[in-house]
Predict the structure.
Amino acid sequence: MNIENKRAITSNREKIDWFLKALVAVANKTNWEGLPITLNVNGLIISGYLVSGREFFENLFEGQTEDSLPGIKEIIDDLYPDSAGKDEEEQDSLPAYIHLRDARIHHPGQPPIPIDKGVYWRGCLEGVNGFCFGVSGVK
């Protein structure tokens, strides 16, 4: 890894909460059933269950027919970044993304999106301003 890449990783580390990054790393390694969590992302509240990147990609197109997305599952399987075989420095730079199941996005004064049921959601850890444990209730 060259010096510029190391500087970029160090710079990103300072922007990502170390504890949240550790939770995401555990979720990715253990395939949790889902940890209830609520995130603050640039003023929006995103609430759902923290899951592994693997679960996210395996279920991303849940409910879609093979006719509507021909070959997409095979493409995702081929492209999903498997951490096996990466050197220690590359491992240390992971994870960069957080994945939620049954996620709902809350904007002040508005009903949550989606209204009927949650969705799989993926976001950049660097964009998370804060978090708490638990899922925001819907009334």
Q: What stands out?
A: The chain has one domain: 3-133.
